[in-house]
Amino acid sequence: MGSLSAAAGEHPIYPTARRDESIVDNYHGVMVSDPYRWLEDADSVETKEFVEKQTKLTDSVLKTCEAREKIRQKLTELYDFPKYDAPFRAGDKYFYFHNTGLQPQRVLYIQDSLDGKPEILLDPNSLSDDGTLSLRAYEVSIDAKYLAYGISSSGSDWVTIKVMQIEDKRIEPDTLSWVKFSSISWTHDTNGFFYTRYPAPEDGEKLDAGTEINSNLHHELYYHFLGTNQSEDILCWSDPDNPKHTRSASVTEDGKYVLLYTYENCDPVNKIYYCNMSGLPEGLKSYKGKKDILLPFVKLVDTFDANYHYIANDDTIFTFLTNKDAPRNKLVRVDLNDPNFWTEVLREDGEDVLQSAVAVNGSQIVVNYLSHVKNVLQLRDLETGALLHRLPLEIGTVSEISSRRKDKIVFIGFSSFLVPGIIYACNLEAEVPDIKIFREIVVPGFDRTHFEVKQVFVASKDGAKIPMFIVARKGICMDQSHPCLLYGYGGFNVSVTPQFFVNRILIAKHLDVVFCFANIRGGGEYGKEWHKAGSLSRKQNCFDDFISAAEYLVSSGYTQPRKLCIEGGSNGGLLVGACINQRPDLFGCALAHVGVMDMLRFHKFTIGHAWTSDFGCSDREEEFHWLIKYSPLHNVRRPSNKTTQYPSTMLLTADHDDRVVPLHSLKLLATMQHVLCTSSEKNHQTNPIIGRIERKAGHGCGMPTQKLIDQAADRYGFMAKMVEAIWID
To answer: Coil, helix or strand for 689?
Structure first.
């Protein structure tokens, strides 16, 4: 395996971290020590000193990584290309997001028509000097008079909502704080909007939002009237008996109803209630100033047994996408006047997953299927579900379908491993849809013909067939000589589909890296059953799938263990942490971003309680025994084979990550360094174990472009050194 400096025989000198052996927890009769519990206090002097020492150690290691600055320089050049999102409409205006190249954050533009002169409506880059204020949530009112938008600081999930009057771009005094995991939905009278928030913390005025670890409880639905103080907002729905539930609300396209979605945790199931706002005598104004009266929501679905997502409605007749008795999803219809009678509009496909449906052109829907991890679009009749046309696409990912029901033009955002981005305009006026390229994103210097993509199906430990994409230069020799990067996620029903990554194209071109995406169980690639096959008591399937994918890459001649790097973020960081514990011999390098590493205590911090739907919870005896078997923090062991060591490892986290709080990575970092690198036993761990702690950043959302470039240069520069990848000009 690659070492820090093989020629000079240099190895890192690790800082000593205090171990408090007195911290021992009793889990159902099993005593588990937690000697680095003190690292859970991010504000303590001792924790700050630990972070400072680790940062210095990491800097000293990165200085030896020769490819790092070349990657940074070349990536800065490659990143400097125009990026666009699909346009969307409100009123008679068009809106779209655009980044000219190296701007820290994307900018929102407005146009009177598609060929009209674009104007900047909101530029988040003007809000801070370092680009760490980002736009998170936004919604334009139906008449295009107002923009409500949420600003996040330093990547935190906390958002502050502001309002802009669009015509003169004047910022209104309205300011809504302590908003998190919220959509924004205007009522059609443009008097205000719905949003969700948590109660303000007791120490809210002193708090550096994003650095706290307290559980997020009592997510409540509010309505804000324009021009009023937040203290006057209407509390529309609250459920004190279920403090862990989260919720969102949306106004139907006809403006008559507001739908309330309630989620128990991260499982993709929800309750759905509705309120007929047109039936309120004075609309929502009649609730203004009434603190103890909630909106009269009617319970349409009041059990957590399936997922329901609104597609369209004609007065009381509603169409929903659901996985009720359909693991790969279907479309159903119900009349609110007869809520016990549901009819099937589009039945579940025998193989493909129905990911989304968008009502368009009055009586039609564009449906988006996932077929063996590739998107397929169809145009269907909204009332009958009948197939009208197939919309041709390359193999890749549909990132956006932008249209209102009354619009005849649909904008479709598309990308793939070798397509940086295409926005199609699909005109539905003619009998046969007319699809044309509206915008194509071009990366200077990138030639897709130099690369090839293949999809293989790998047999896992139990025989399950796991899809994996492999991207490499054309004509590579299968002699195990190539560095290889294997990425995975495997959780929370999330599907990892083909997308364009500038940084991975760079390392494929200049470091001869083969990069691969394993669609392991736990994701949503094949629907509910695929997700459940990698969660709770079956979480080990995720690690077995990923390990099998790695073994395939070795046995097929792409690479060898010392040249194989694995990478993942969040739940994927957990994946990496578990796999290096279980098979340290199989990997030469590991990059674990913002991972969930302490599986016994994750539910105690911020929104961690919601993840018990995928992981289970150590408070319950049976589930504790699932978790203790794979928890990265609790399974670090010196390999019994003295010729085997852990791969070179970089744990990445950020000081304002209030989703997977930094303590996960810090505790694992201290544990790995103690067990593997600083024990009194003769040390055979020469591969470095380091942590990269980003400042003024969070779980990943809203990270400015320069931080993205710097982080990629650091982690792939580290990888290049550890797997002995040679730079090719």
So the answer is: strand
Burial class (CB in 10 A: 0-12, 13-18, 19+), 666: buried
DSSP reduced 3-state for 152 = strand
Give residue-wise pLDDT tens across range 324-355: 999 999 999 999 999 999 999 999 999 999 99
- Give just the sign of the alpha carbon dihedral 710, 716, 722, 725: negative
Nearest-CA neighbor of 34 among 671, 691, 679? 671
Q: Which residues are CB-contacts of 662 (< 8 A; sequence separation ≥ 6)?
A: 42, 653, 654, 655, 693
Let me know: does 466 contact 703? Beta carbons within 8 Å.
Answer: no
3-state secondary structure string across 589-634: EEEEECCCCCCCCHHHCCCHHHHHHHHCCCCCHHHHHHHHHHCHHH
Quick check: 640 pLDDT over 80? yes
* Rounded distance between C-alpha atoms, residue 349 and residue 147, angstroms: 39
Which of the following is catalytic: 174, 309, 699, 710? 699
Calculate the alpha carbon distances from 281 to 222, 277, 285, 673 in Å: 19, 9, 9, 66
At 578 the three-state DSSP class reads helix
Beta bridge partners, 88, equal 95
Partners of 151 in the β-ladder: 135, 160
Terminal Cα-to-Cα distance of the chain (whole angstroms): 25
Dig out the tokens for 248 from the structure.
Answer: 């969102």
Q: At what angle do helices 540-555 and 621-630 cross, to 10 degrees?
A: 20
Element (H, E) at 261: strand 257-263
Compute the radius of gyration of the chain from its Cα atoms. 26
Exposed/middle/buried for residue 660 (C-beta within 10 Å: 0-12, 13-18, 19+): buried
Closest CA to 573 of 556, 590, 589: 590
Residue 504 token pair: 């991975």
> Of 570, 618, 631, 648, which residue is the catalytic one?
570
Whole-prediction pTM: 0.97
Query: Does the annotation mark 570 as catalytic?
Result: yes
Q: Is 625 a catalytic residue?
A: no
User: According to the model, what pLDDT value does residue 621 have?
Assistant: 98
- Closest C-alpha to 684, from 637, 643, 640, 635: 643
- Residue of 34, 233, 512, 657 marked catalytic: 657
Phi-psi region of 700 (alpha: psi -120 to 50; beta: other; left: phi over 0): left
- Dmax (CA) of the chain: 81
Determine whether 115 is an active site residue.
no
- Rounded to an integer, what distance in angstroms lies between the CA atom of residue 152 and that of residue 290? 30
Residue holding tokens 């005094």? 173
What does the pLDDT average to over 274-294? 89
220 bridge partner residues: 197
Q: Which two tokens stand for residue 586?
A: 């199989």
How many other C-beta atoms are found inside a 10 Å radius of the C-beta of residue 464? 18
Structure tokens at 163: 């309002």
C-alpha neighbours within 13 Å on the C-beta side of residue 682: 3
CB 274 within 8 A of CB 297: yes
